[in-house]
Write a structure and sequence with these properties.
heterotrimer, A alpha+beta, B mainly alpha, C alpha/beta, A: alpha+beta, Heat Shock Protein 90, 9% strand, disordered C terminus, C: alpha/beta, Rossmann fold, 6 helices, globular
């Protein structure tokens, strides 16, 4: 029996050892599995870290730069994450940002447009006001030297006005002026009037068609941009040729330059812009801003004409064709353009219309002087020129109350009459009276002054 | 106030009308210089304003001031166009009394008689 | 050719060879346009026109329309006086700031008729001074406005400091006859001055 004891012990030990081995192996397996899982998890965490970094450094900035062009925004770094909830979360972040960027950009564009529009319209109004003054002066002065200067100012002002007008149109404004329907020739020459190199523009043909009133200004503006473009992109010694052609269902204005022309991609880009279909972002016109073609696109789209630049001109440069559909055309009024215009205003009729209120002159001295003087009648129009009263010519008044003056001498050397003796009036010295009358005249003048009287002429 | 047949005055600027020139080729025009169109000259190649001027002056004589008024162009611009047209033989002028000359008694008498006849 | 253009009231007679001009001057609303209009055989033409609505803004660009009335027009009229002689009348604005224009207009003018309004006589002073400076002989016609006070001639002469020989007449610019009378007074005066050494226009 004694010999059984060791055997029992052996088997016990063996069994124990086996158990331990089994346990160890199992433990080993478990550990290995855990390690592997750990590694996988670690990898995934790292991948997500990378993915988040990728999101922050690459994908979101790309999105911020080009919110409307999703193709340009890179996708996931690690394709294994595709379809996971993690990817969805990242996409949510992307979408959120895209929305924010979009809204911010629209807001920025809107406020930029609003600010630009308001400023440009103010400038446009000034340019127009100035043009009227220049026209008035051109009419008034019959002198070549004066005319020469006025033509230069007029030319500069027209270009200035066009620039302001173009930017205002880009920002959603109307072209600004209502004009009478005008012959196509005049429309093109009106456009020619607004560019720097107008003398290089030759209008070769005439057609007996006119542009309808509402389209005159838009077409003038669009053609002006095309002419300017043509003149800028060709040698100064070449001409820009304009031909007018009747066409099926409309008429064409064909503008040929002898410049360098445009290559394929340029033509493609220009065509896209000229269609007016492209969304315009005024904050991205470049520096210097290129608004010529975008303006044409906006006008063409809005008024229903088309502009193409996809043919070469016979002179090697660009041929731009403006097609005006019949809806924008009308017949030239064949009546005499030189019939006497009706005398519209007859300022000579004694004033009977609405009379503006006039502030009486103030000051005791002037009041006392007013007693001896008939007050001038209130003026019939609020915007008439200043009455011409030279204070120093006033010399008191006659017994019947008429104001008196002193005769003048010719500016030339030979007087036609002996100089009149200055007549002191009513005990006061002539100078003193003249001075007081001057004060009076200033008073009445400032009383008559209206906001429109901005000539600022010291009389 | 604006009849439909009115030309758009501000559209084509005067420097385009005169091709940038302010000085007439000749300095012989006064407001009352009388001008008349030569009937035998072709109108082809003339600018729209010159053509209108020719059409205006074809039926009879007018003063420079009247031409300017009918065409709705400034007097000074009208004179530039007239200068060209006289040069090219399209327009014939009848000179007014020369500037420096004294209004002679005979003309004044004629004016006076004419006015009296109108009473 | 347009029929209106061919009519005789637009064009001068074939026989007309000489054109002379007289200025009709005066301040705003004194009656120049009416005066020229009642004498002229042609519709009053203006060498200058205000820009009308056609050129004005359609939208809210404020401040433009008000500007359209500021223009001072130079109107003129025409009287054919004989087979060979035509007289042009130019209405010239009286404002001092048109001095430059004056130099162009007085060139070649025989003389000027100053229209005056006794209710605002002082507004004629500037224009009379200009005429005197230019050495252009003139006559004064007081345009009679309804309801305006009437002054003795001597008093108006005193107020205007007229030379004894300067004609002073009264007229109604709306009335052709009195307007012609005023021109006659002017031309008679001009005729009386035609001794060569006096003139330096």
């Amino acid at each position: 029996m004694k010999s059984d004891i060791p055997a029992v012990a052996f088997w016990c030990l063996a069994a124990g050892a086996l158990a331990v081995v089994v346990l160890l192996v199992r433990q080993q397996l478990i550990t290995r599995a855990l390690r592997a899982r750990n590694a996988t998890l670690e990898g995934r965490v790292k991948a997500r870290d990378e993915e988040v970094r990728h999101l922050a450094t690459v994908r979101l900035p790309a999105l911020a730069d080009a919110p409307h062009q999703p193709v340009l925004v890179p996708g996931l770094l690690d394709r294994r994450l595709a379809g996971t909830g993690f990817e969805q979360s990242l996409q949510d972040v992307m979408d959120l940002l895209a929305g924010v960027v979009d809204r911010a950009q629209v807001r920025a564009d809107q406020s930029a447009k609003a600010a630009l529009k308001a400023s440009m319209r103010a400038l446009q109004a000034l340019a127009n006001e100035q043009q009227m003054s220049i026209s008035d002066m051109q009419d008034r002065h019959d002198n070549p030297d004066v005319l020469r200067d006025l033509l230069e100012i007029d030319h500069a002002n027209s270009q200035f006005g066009r620039r302001a007008q173009a930017i205002a149109v880009l920002c959603g404004s109307w072209p600004g002026r209502q004009r009478a329907s005008s012959p196509m020739t005049d429309v093109v020459r009106g456009a020619k009037s607004r560019i720097r190199d107008y003398r290089r523009v030759q209008v070769r043909t005439q057609v007996e068609l006119a542009v309808v009133s509402r389209a005159v200004e838009p077409v003038v503006l669009a053609v002006a941009e095309l002419l300017d473009n043509a003149a800028r992109h060709s040698q100064p010694n070449t001409t820009v040729e304009v031909n007018l052609q009747p066409a099926h269902n409309g008429a064409c204005i064909v503008i040929d330059d002898a410049g360098v022309g445009m290559d394929g991609p340029e033509v493609e880009r220009a065509t896209r812009v000229l269609s007016g279909q492209q969304v315009l972002d005024v904050t991205r016109l470049g520096d210097p801003p290129k608004f010529g073609f975008p303006v044409i696109g906006v006008l063409a789209d809005r008024y229903g004409f088309t502009v193409s630049v996809d043919t070469r001109s016979p002179y090697g440069g660009v041929r731009a064709v403006v097609f005006l559909p019949s809806a924008l055309l009308t017949q030239i009024e064949t009546d005499d353009a030189y019939a006497a215009p009706p005398a519209s205003v007859t300022p000579s009729e004694p004033a009977a219309g609405a009379l503006p209120t006039r502030r009486p002159p103030s000051g005791a001295e002037e009041e006392s002087l007013r007693e001896g003087l008939r007050m001038p009648e209130p003026e019939p129009s609020h915007a008439q020129p200043q009455p011409d009263t030279e204070p120093e010519w006033l010399l008191g008044s006659t017994t019947g109350g008429l104001p008196k003056r002193r005769r003048r001498q010719p500016a030339t050397t030979q007087p036609t009459s002996p100089p009149p003796a200055p007549a002191p009036a009513q005990g006061r010295s002539a100078e003193e009276i003249a001075r007081r009358m001057g004060a009076f005249a200033r008073g009445t003048r400032s009383g008559r002054a209206t906001p429109d009287d901005d000539e600022g002429n010291p009389l | 106030m604006t009849p439909p047949n009115r030309r758009e005055k501000g559209l084509v600027r005067p420097y385009v009308v005169t091709d940038g020139r302010a000085h007439p080729t000749r300095n012989t025009f006064d407001l009352v210089t009388l001008v008349v169109a030569a009937r035998d000259r072709p109108l082809g190649g003339l600018s729209p304003e010159k053509r209108r001027l020719m059409q205006l002056c074809m039926p009879g004589a007018l003063s420079v001031a009247e031409v300017s008024g009918h065409l709705q162009l400034p007097v000074s611009v009208t004179k530039v166009l007239l200068g060209d047209l006289v040069d090219s033989g399209h327009i014939i002028t009848r000179a007014p009394i020369p500037k420096a000359q004294l209004p002679d008694a005979q003309i004044l008498q004629e004016v006076l008689d004419g006015l009296r006849a109108r009473l | 050719m347009d029929s209106a253009l061919a009519s005789d009231d637009v064009y001068l007679r074939e026989s007309v060879r000489t054109a002379v001009k007289l200025l009709v001057v005066g301040h705003f609303a004194v009656g120049k346009t009416t005066f020229v209009g009642s004498l002229s055989e042609i519709k009053p033409l203006r060498t200058e026109e205000t820009m009308t609505q056609a050129g004005a803004f359609v939208d809210d660009l404020a401040g433009i329309k008000d500007k359209t009335t500021t223009t001072v027009a130079m109107d003129f009229g025409r009287l054919t006086l004989s087979e060979s002689l035509v007289l042009y009348l130019f209405g010239a604005p009286g404002q001092q700031r048109f001095t430059r224009l004056w130099q162009d207009m007085t060139r070649g003018a025989l003389g000027a008729l100053v229209l005056a309004d006794t209710r605002r006589l002082e507004q004629s002073f500037g224009v009379m001074g200009l005429l005197e400076e230019h050495g252009l002989p003139y006559a004064v016609a007081v345009n009679h406005f309804d309801g305006a006070p009437v002054f003795p001639e001597a008093e108006i002469r005193e107020a205007l400091d007229l030379l004894p020989e300067t004609p002073l007449v009264s007229c109604d610019a709306r009335d052709r006859a009195t307007s012609v009378q005023a021109l006659i007074a002017l031309v008679q005066y001009l005729l009386s001055r035609t001794t060569p050494h006096q003139e330096n226009v």
